[in-house]
Amino acid sequence: MVVAVLLGSVRSERMGDRAAKWAMTQLEAREHEAVLVDAAKLELPMLDKMWKEVGPQFGAHAPVGYGDLKKRLAPLAELYARVDGFCVVSAEYNHSVPPGLTNLIDYFLEEYFWRPSAIVCYSAAPFGGVRAAMQLRALLAEVGMPSIPSIQAIPSVGNSLSKDGMALTQELAEKSGKFFDEFSWYMRAFKAERAKGLAY
């Protein structure tokens, strides 16, 4: 399977890159191709026009002022066209989803359809970002990539993962396998059904 790993925190001292590296290692251990989509590196402006409003239908001529945006979004559109699932790595800001993550997600829509998502959430606190994950579930379902039933929370992320994304706790090292196996099952199931034709 091909998996886009969406990292939404854009803070300079974020811990999300640790969680993203760890998730990618887990996915690659299951022989998936994991591709990082980092909102901080993309530096997308606050949403004004979606991909479908500046994309390929305009050829070389995107609407005035949107040429650079088109160049930045085109590689994502190409990636999303071939992915089988989305692993969404989310911090928790004020009990909610980071604005950089929602902004990243909102640039696309149809590209997400009929593909499952899996939520890896984290925080410096003991709850591991689950309050943001609950809100994220609604957003992901609405844009067409419903999340799998399980959530992978990472509490006290600074003590749970190294800078290289290595698990530092027994809980994370030994008990996360079921989450990624479940995600793999959903990706295989959705892919098999997509091959039979879409329901619209």
Write up what this structure looks like.
By secondary structure, the chain is α/β, with parallel strands linked by helices. It has one domain: Rossmann fold (3-Layer(aba) Sandwich), CATH 3.40.50.360. The chain has helices spanning 16-29, 39-42, 51-54, 67-82, 99-106, 130-142, 157-160, 170-174, 177-195; strands at residues 2-7, 33-38, 85-90, 117-122, 152-154.
Q: What is the tally of beta strands? A: 5
CATH third-level topology: Rossmann fold
Helix and strand succession?
A: EHEHHHEHEHEHHH
How much strand? 5-15%
What does the largest sheet look like? Answer: 5 strands, parallel
Point out poorly predicted stretches: none
Amino-to-carboxy terminus distance? 24 Å
What's the CATH H-level homologous superfamily? Answer: Flavodoxin domain
Q: In total, how many domains does the architecture comprise? A: 1
CATH classification, class level: Alpha Beta
Portion of residues in helices? 40-55%
Average pLDDT across residues? 94
What form results from the Cα inertia axes?
globular
CATH architecture: 3-Layer(aba) Sandwich
Give me the side-by-side strand order of the main sheet.
2-1-3-4-5
Helical stretch count? 9
SS content category: alpha/beta
Radius of gyration: 17 Å
Topology, element by element:
Layout: E1 2-7, H1 16-29, E2 33-38, H2 39-42, H3 51-54, H4 67-82, E3 85-90, H5 99-106, E4 117-122, H6 130-142, E5 152-154, H7 157-160, H8 170-174, H9 177-195
Parallel strand pairs: 1-2, 1-3, 3-4, 4-5
